[in-house]
């Protein structure tokens, strides 16, 4: 009898581990429990702001540690230039996007009210998934 209980516990534990490991990346569907985390930079040329670029991922609303990891993971744009802008830009220091709603993130890029940028981006549900996800890159030229 004790041996059956042990096998049952081992089987349940195995299923739990398998469920945690086999979490496939999916496209977010702008769930109300989601938040956007990452960073954005304003692009400057000839002394004025000419656009903005952001690198972001969607995370669960309740897990701030994942958000912090995403902010750290998306902290650089390297030598990137502003997509769609003809000319060279310099970048202002990064600005953190911490737990924005999908609509707030859309508003950051002057989209119409209700625009939902989360519909086509990767969601991170576990902190260990952050390094394996490609951040969405949003850009806008003013």
What about the largest sheet? Answer: 5 strands, antiparallel
* β-sheet strand percentage: 25-35%
The tally of beta strands, per DSSP, is 5
Mean pLDDT: 78
Helix content: 25-40%
**What's the SSE pattern?**
HEEHEEHE
Radius of gyration: 20 Å
| Morphology | globular
- Uncertain segments are 13-30
User: Could you say which structural class the secondary elements and strand pairing correspond to?
Assistant: alpha+beta
Summarize the structure.
The chain contains three helices and five strands, in the order H-E-E-H-E-E-H-E. The chain is an alpha+beta fold and 142 residues long.
Would you mind describing this structure in some detail?
This protein is α+β, with helices and mostly antiparallel strands and 142 residues long. Helix content is 26%, strand content 27%. It is built from three helices and five strands, in the order αββαββαβ. Strands 1, 2, 3, 4 and 5 form a five-stranded antiparallel beta sheet that branches. Strand 1 (34-45) and strand 2 form a beta hairpin. The chain is globular, with a radius of gyration of 20 Å. The termini are far apart. Mean pLDDT is 78; it is low at 13-30.
